Amino acid sequence: MILPIYVFGQPVLREEAQDITPDYPNLKELIANMFETMDRADGVGLAAPQIGLPIRVVVVDLDVLADDMPEFKGFRRAYINPHILEAGDNLVAMEEGCLSLPGIHESVKRPDRIHVQYLDEEMKPHDEWVEGYLARVMQHEFDHLDGVMFIDHLSALRKQMIRGKLNSMVKGKARCSYKVKTVK
Ligand code: NI
Asked: Between β-strands 106-111 and 45-47, what pairing exists: parallel, antiparallel or unpaired?
């Protein structure tokens, strides 16, 4: 089932999401719906707060990038209760966008490697260092679970430049090709 994507201005996007327990109801179905919603919107990642749920669940699909990055062939994963424990010192800049911020693309500096803990879809625990593009996507998505959006990492000047677009979103004017849920 395709769910509407919550857009900037929705309070749930600013909440601290909570870890879930293994008996969380209909988790498989929720994850399937998140994948379907992300696919429809042409995203590479989607966090549960973006569909209105303040829980620590994220889906990532890097298979769509496999033409350019063959290492991601077939890469479609869910991350449950993910947490970033530490990050490398080296920062790299890359342009980011977000399904909850339609029409905004900005360069964001982030550490190039991170140490993460999470459960996979089978509730199996993982503890690993991740680098490169996946580390970038994970940081963006896991930020959502802490109520953080990529625009929070921008300079005051860049924030000023996108203020008009943000104000429009809060007023319910989000231009995109997928179903959204704005505040108004
Ligand atoms: Ni996002």
From this structure: unpaired
Helix (H, G, I), strand (E, B) or coil at 40: helix
- Annotated catalytic, 141? yes
Residue of 15, 29, 95, 141 marked active site: 141
Ligand 1 centroid from CA 98, angstroms:
4
Alpha carbon of residue 112 to chain centroid = 17
Q: Rounded to the nearest whole angstrom, what is the distance from the C-alpha of residue 143 to the centroid of ligand 1?
A: 8
Residue 98 annotated as lining a ligand binding site: yes
Tens of pLDDT, residue by residue over 109-153, are: 999 999 999 999 999 999 999 999 999 999 999 999 999 999 999
Q: Is 176 annotated as a binding residue?
A: no
User: Which domains can be identified in the chain, with CATH numbers?
Assistant: 5-181 (3.90.45.10)
pLDDT tens for each residue of 22-69: 999 999 999 999 999 999 999 999 999 999 999 999 999 999 999 999
pTM, full prediction: 0.97
Phi, psi of 45 (to 5 degrees): -155, 150
Instruction: Report the run of H or E that residue 93 belongs to, with start and end.
Output: strand 91-96
154-180 pLDDT, tens per residue?
999 999 999 999 999 999 988 899 999
Q: Is 140 annotated as a binding residue?
A: yes
Q: How many whole angstroms from 124 Cα to the centroid of ligand 1?
A: 25
